[in-house]
User: What shape does this take?
Amino acid sequence: MGGRLTQVATLLSLLLTISQDTSASLAPTTFEDLVRDSSLIVIARSQESRVVDFAAGRAKLKTDRVLRGRWPGPFITLEWTEEVHDQRIRRVGEAYLLFLRAEGNRYVGTHYGRSYWPMDYTKERKEFIEYIYPVTYVKVPGSLLADVERMEEAWPGAPRTCTIKGILLDRVITYIEATVK
Assistant: This one.
């Protein structure tokens, strides 16, 4: 009887382990943790992006500036899985602020689902990151946030402006440089 009870307990334990959600957590994190946990922080522009298997893929980016760590080459390759919240680099020619950590002989996003920040330009041509998903999963200090005016094209040749919440890149750079020292 005792052996049978042990087998049932083992089977139930195994079933509970298998049935648990194995996807990574998207619980909020702090900007301080994101910076601290990143061994490499770079500004890079996507050169190519391709899906290689269902929704998994890879992108090649040209590094424009290293804010933390050392990256010896002009290019970095990032890969993603088919996991729904895994970040992707989908558009070629876009600039990103990337928070990365070493994993073996490659780099991956430091915090799952919130490490690749697409960049944009304000009406005054200042670089910023729009404070929308997935960036909003990062608790950013208020000193980095600002209301920014961005040019929108309602239709070709008809520009208009809109005001949105953004993170100014120059403030982020100052913060990272102060933190790294």
